[in-house]
Amino acid sequence: MRPAVPAPGVGRPGSGGRRWGQASPTTVAALLAVSVGLSGCATVEEHSPAGAGIGVGTAARPPLDGLVARPSAGVISGGLRGTLAGGTVGGYLEREDRNRAQAIAATGYTVAQGNVLRVDRVQVEPRAARPGDTVQLLVSFTMLTTSPTESMLIRETREVRHHDALVADPATEASRSSGTFTSALPITLPGNVARGLYEVTAIVASGGYLSRGTSRFTVR
Fold it and tell me: Per CATH, is 21-57+67-219 categorized as 2.60.40.10?
């Protein structure tokens, strides 16, 4: 698995504003610990204010349970190419796992940490698929702002790679208030899709805030 690379221009000393820096070793260890055992080979990388990690984990429930359509959060850029050309991207699905108060209680967040945006989990359902099947690319993330009335425009990008070649990168946008959320974007595989291992990287970003995680699925 290729390690995730920090986004250009993020967390550079002297960049000004509330930019993301490299997460502390304690935070990274906690993130990796919660990632072990998730679907495929899931890892999470975080760009948070230096030394200001928050607790990890989302409410345990079946991955697809309670997801509902949000037509306003359609794909705004990107698409399918290469071995996935000829497939289709379905409608965006979402659910709220925790409201602001519940997310604060679960993570131990304080306003002194500033705004926080963090990927908690990346999953693919099912983990093993066949040509013509539909796979759900899921990402769970937590967003907390210093003001309970503040919202942020969140961009989610799902990158799919096969043998290191980028074959999908659909991006969606939606405005959100604080809480923990799970979203899914279904991709129906073309009948002639190449078999093998696919790596999915989910990137959640808003302005200078960015977090990402990875998972995998196999086409048999």
Answer: yes
